[in-house]
Design a protein that fits this description.
With about 775 residues, this protein is α/β, with parallel strands linked by helices. It is built from 32 helices and 21 strands. Strands 9, 10, 11, 12, 13, 14, 15 and 16 form an eight-stranded mixed β-sheet that branches. A six-stranded parallel β-sheet has the order 3-2-6-7-1-8, with helices on both faces. The protein has a five-stranded antiparallel β-sheet with strand order 20-19-18-17-21, with no helix packed on it. A hairpin with a 3-residue loop joins strand 19 and strand 20. Helix 19 crosses helix 23 and helix 23 runs antiparallel to helix 24. The chain starts with a helix and ends with a strand. About 45% of the residues are buried. It binds adenosine-5'-triphosphate and magnesium ion. The site of magnesium ion has 3 residues, from helix 3. One of its GO terms (cellular component) is cytosol. This is DNA 3'-5' helicase.
Length: about 775
């Protein structure tokens, strides 16, 4: 072949090379951001294949997103050739779905089981909570689903939980009952939620050693990226997959015609698979989803004799960016010291910017993006990060106006749109006739005159007769409903049954494609034509979305000629936020800091670096909260290759209120000489003391208290707030009244329509002649009365 060992190992540093070539049972690669962890994992896979130590089918590599999986596959294929395509490179969830569908019967599942996303879970919980009147005890779909998810991530189920629950506490009793009903409903619907996918696979392996043995024999090399963000269930799964198979079971496999001789040792047993994990405890940002950093810190204890490789050279960022990252993360206590360095030179300084408002900050981002673009940076090499989705509003508004092409990664949520969920529910109901949730969703969509009472009645009829909801629909004539309603239900049941027949490979025309089935359902149900003939312009957009879905099913069939409806549904269920990326699109990427993990861009804008956003107010008082938020900040900084912008706003609109915002405590952790602070043009005529000086004055305000587990001291907060507002501008007691004309530094002239609030919080609602309607905090807005 044209692939040589040397090209595969080209350019690796000695530590990277060691990690690629190590051939022991367990390998831990622990290293800071941008040091080549993911690259090393990729090359290691390639090296195992190229040396013929492993067949592609013997590799299981786990990535954090489907997109990362696809990238890794392409890189390996580029290194060793097309035959490598058969590798399992996927997320934990995708790998588990594959295993569970293959072993469905043993796991007590239908192979066409549905996968419930968080909104499906919430709808189900809402019904249960309502039925139990549990809201009076403070239960909400949100708090219950969070608790259930946490338990499942620890591999607890309702029975194990109930055994240890304090059943004299009415809260506990109620929670157990909700959990039990939730479990039963999912079972009855042949549905698994996201957490179940991992947990059920672990249970399967534990309950059926022979099934486990099959997969242990098969996967000889298990590799996991971003290991710092695995939770307990995922850890347990990795352990199950990498255990040895004893001689007796190995013989049994051999007797079944599964060749195991090539993997048996001298005792006849199959040794555990080799395990490689890579991670960075400084980038652990999913504790709120149960990620457990101990999976890394205790790796050597769990896998005795494990080899540990440290990588310290960073290939991604300039020294200035790295120094900032090192300084920030150095404030987290209880961590292993590691210093990243780069041979790449200092590079440009970090640019800091303080805007007057979120709008002002967004304008700065847009202007800088244009400047970068003019100077030759592709839009696709630029990313804008934020802590919360709410921050996108101002950014999008300005980017649209500035004609900067952008996309919100993970924000379009195509598959979460109501009309798409409706159309998908038709497909789900065909694939999995037990899925009551899907059936109830489409029962009266489009409107067929079937009311909520009938919807519930069908459910009780099913329960009373021990039949499924779908069967109850087929038997609707027995319910004694009016003829119109009865007919509507029967017609829908028939439509779904006919669609199911189309999927049968034994049908005269052979199995129909996903798009044929979808088109058939859309026509039979009139879902699309109802939207098309509506006069509501929103319905027109909805119809277009459904047409886009049809187009996607066609693409899917073209790209996966052997795949069927269930494969399509699985793929849709498992798209994660970061899978939304499309490098070829030539647009700026907007995303949350969480989504940014593992990615890199030439220029990065980290916006909203303010107290309350970063660290987020929800986490500020939680144990470990500020440290985790600092890691999130660290992740954001280390995505930048060449240019890093840190921006904040003095005031931010939140929940319809305008609040004075304060610079994030993390900013003062960056050495002042690394940042070149620029201010808002709107502040140029104010006193304008430099940010870094003000920030330095605040040093040692927070860090120490945080280490002692104390919330931040309130005093420096007010002091700082006063300083900031004083520094910007103080209009004193400027009195504005409806009808007054004013001039704003950025927005030009406008007319005051209304004044609300009191004292320092007085807000002017202004209609600007060209900039439109704005709300301004009168005390500090850069305005004058005309
Ligand atoms: P993160 O912690 O953000 O996930 P990582 O440790 O996985 O980062 P990679 O994404 O693998 O790092 O690598 C960072 C960048 O450095 C990539 O652009 C990669 O191509 C490059 N890189 C890695 N190793 C080398 C090397 N030996 N020579 C040149 N470039 C390298
Ligand atoms: Mg990586």
């Amino acid at each position: 072949s044209g692939y040589s060992r040397s090209s595969l190992l080209d350019g690796l540093n000695p530590q990277q090379l060691e990690a690629v070539e190590y051939r022991g049972q367990a390998l831990l690669i622990i290293a800071g951001a941008g040091s080549g962890k993911t690259s090393v994992l990729t090359r290691r896979v390639a090296s195992l294949l190229e040396s013929r130590e492993a067949w592609p089918s013997q590799i299981l590599a786990i990535t954090f997103t489907n997109k990362a999986a696809a990238e890794m596959r392409e890189r390996v294929v580029a290194l060793v050739g097309d035959h490598a395509r058969g590798m399992w490179i996927s997320t934990f969830h995708s790998a588990c779905v594959r295993i569970l569908r293959a072993e469905a019967e043993r796991a007590g599942l239908s192979s066409t089981f549905s996968i419930y996303d968080s909104s499906d879970t919430r709808v189900t919980l809402k019904r249960i909570i309502k039925g139990l009147d549990a809201d009076t005890l403070g239960f909400t779909p949100a708090n219950v689903s969070a608790k259930i998810s946490k338990l499942k991530n620890e591999l607890a189920d309702v029975d194990s939980y109930a055994r240890n629950a304090n059943m004299s506490d009415p809260q506990e009793v109620m929670f157990v009952e909700i959990f039990r009903q939730y479990t039963q409903r999912l079972r009855a619907a042949s549905a698994l939620d996201f957490d179940d996918l991992i947990g059920e696979t672990v249970y399967l392996f534990r309950a059926f050693p022979r099934v486990a043995a099959l997969y242990r024999r098969r996967f000889r090399h298990v590799l996991v990226d971003e290991y710092q963000d695995t939770n307990h269930a995922q850890y347990a799964l990795v352990r199950e997959l990498t255990r040895p198979v004893d001689a007796e079971l190995a013989d049994e496999l051999e007797a079944q015609g599964l060749h195991v001789r090539n993997v048996q040792d001298s005792t006849g047993a199959i040794p555990g698979a080799s395990l490689t994990v890579v991670g960075d405890s400084d980038q652990s940002i999913y504790a709120f989803r149960g990620a457990d950093i101990r999976n890394i810190s205790e790796f050597e204890r769990d896998f005795p004799g494990a080899k540990v490789v440290l990588l310290e050279q960073n290939y991604r960022s300039t020294q200035n960016i790295l120094s900032a990252a090192n300084a920030v993360i150095g404030n987290n206590f209880d961590r292993k010291e590691k210093k990243l360095w780069t041979a790449g030179g200092d590079g440009e300084k970090i640019v800091g910017f303080t805007g007057y408002s979120g709008h002002d900050e967004a304008q700065f981002v847009a202007d800088e993006i244009e400047a970068l673009h003019q100077a030759g940076t592709d839009y696709r090499d630029i990313a804008v990060f934020y802590r919360t989705n709410a921050q996108t509003r101002a950014l999008e508004e300005i980017l649209v106006r500035a004609a900067v092409p952008y996309r919100v990664v993970g924000g379009t949520k195509f598959y979460e749109r109501a009309e798409i969920k409706d159309a998908m529910a038709y497909l789900i109901a065909v694939a999995n006739p037990d899925d009551e949730l899907a059936l109830r969703r489409i029962l009266n969509t489009p409107k067929r005159g079937i009311g909520p009472a009938t919807e519930t009645q069908l459910g009780s009829f099913a329960a009373d007769n021990g039949i499924s909801y779908r069967q109850a629909m087929r038997d609707a004539a027995a319910l004694g409903l009016g003829p119109k309603v009865t007919n509507a239900i029967l017609q829908l049941a028939r439509l779904l049954d006919e669609a199911a027949l189309m999927l049968d490979p034994a049908s005269p025309a052979g199995a129909a494609s996903v798009s044929d089935v979808l088109t058939f359902l859309l026509e039979g149900s009139t879902l699309l034509s109802v939207l098309r003939s509506s006069r509501d312009p929103q319905d027109e957009a909805r119809a277009e979305n459904i047409e886009e879905l049809v187009a996607q099913t066609k693409d899917f069939t073209r790209e996966n000629p052997d795949a069927g409806l269930v494969d399509f549904l699985t793929q849709v269920s498992l798209v994660a936020a970061a899978d939304d990326l499309d490098d070829a699109s030539g647009t700026v990427s907007l995303m949350t800091l969480h989504t940014a993990k593992g990615l890199e861009y030439n220029a990065v804008f980290l916006t909203g670096v303010e107290e309350g956003l970063l660290p987020h107010q929800m986490s500020a008082h939680e144990p470990g909260g500020p440290a985790e938020e600092r890691r999130l900040f660290y992740v954001g900084i280390t995505r930048a290759k060449k240019r890093l912008y840190l921006s904040l706003a003095m005031t931010r609109a939140q929940f319809g209120d305008i609040n004075v915002a304060m610079p994030s405590r993390y900013l003062q952790e960056i050495p002042a000489d690394l940042i070149d602070w620029r201010q808002s043009p709107g502040m140029a005529n104010s006193r304008g003391g430099t940010q870094s000086r003000a920030l330095n004055a605040r040093r040692d305000g927070y860090g120490k208290r945080e280490q002692q587990g104390l919330p931040p001291a309130p005093k420096p907060k007010t002091e700082w707030a006063n300083r900031v507002t004083a520094q910007v501008r103080d209009n004193g007691d400027l009195t504005l009244e409806p009808g007054d004309r004013i001039r704003h530094v950025d927005f030009g002239d406008g007319r005051v329509n209304q004044v609300t609030g009191e004292g320092t919080k007085r807000i002017a609602h202004v209609l600007f002649d060209s900039a439109g309607a704005k709300k301004l905090l009168i005390k500090i807005a850069p305005i004058e009365k005309l």
